[in-house]
Design goal:
Largest sheet: 5 strands, antiparallel
Number of helices: 4
Number of strands: 5
CATH superfamily: Ribosomal protein L5
CATH architecture: 2-Layer Sandwich
Structural class: alpha+beta
Strand order of the largest sheet: 2-3-1-5-4
Helix content: 25-40%
Order of helices and strands: HEHEEHEEH
Radius of gyration: 18 Å
CATH topology: 50s Ribosomal Protein L5, Chain: A
Shape: globular
Length: 180
């Protein structure tokens, strides 16, 4: 089986060059990084929740997550400056392409009642952000071992100049979008 990086270079790049009218192969939009993000709002009450999120992100991404700290205190949310409010992992290189392949072909089809991604999830710079209510869609997570279900957000950052370039890149990579 071909690696996802070689699939991108051999099939996606030539197709995007003809579709977008780009001459230079280095000017074709590409994926730069993937960021996995989990908010820890429930962890303010229960410290074990942080351990659950950390182990989930370690399994899914294959690397240790970074704790994101609050920059200022917000009394209505009972948040103090310096408290952990989220965890994130940034994937680049081989891990990014491996995760992208697994995400497109295994994880997205496991979403309950999935009918396709909305093109509105792509921002004006061509980046795709998808939020999931359950982290159980990833094959590394075994549902019988799960103590708590939490959400996870996946952001795929590209070099696309606008929304149309980003949409065509994601379609060529194999993301299932809703027909509009």
């Amino acid at each position: 089986m071909k690696s996802f990086l070689s699939y991108y270079k051999e099939e996606v790049v030539p197709a995007l060059k003809t579709e977008l009218g780009i001459v230079n192969a280095h000017a074709v939009p590409r994926v730069v990084k993937i960021v996995l993000n989990v908010g820890t709002s429930q962890g303010l009450k229960d410290q074990k929740y942080f351990e659950v999120i950390e182990s989930t992100l370690k399994r899914v991404a294959g690397q240790t997550p970074i704790k994101r700290l609050a920059k200022k205190s917000i009394s209505n949310f009972k948040i103090r400056k310096g408290m952990t409010v989220g965890m994130m992992v940034t994937l680049r290189g081989k891990r990014m392409y491996h995760f992208l392949d697994k995400f497109i072909h295994v994880s997205i089809p496991r979403v309950r009642d999935f009918r396709g991604l909305s093109p509105k999830a792509i921002d004006k710079k061509g980046n795709l952000t998808i939020g999931f209510k359950e982290h159980l869609i990833f094959p590394e997570i075994k549902s019988d071992e799960v103590e708590r279900i939490h959400g996870i957000e996946v952001t795929i950052v590209t070099t696309a100049k606008n929304k149309e370039e980003g949409l065509s890149l994601f379609k060529k990579l194999g993301f299932p979008f809703i027909k509009s």
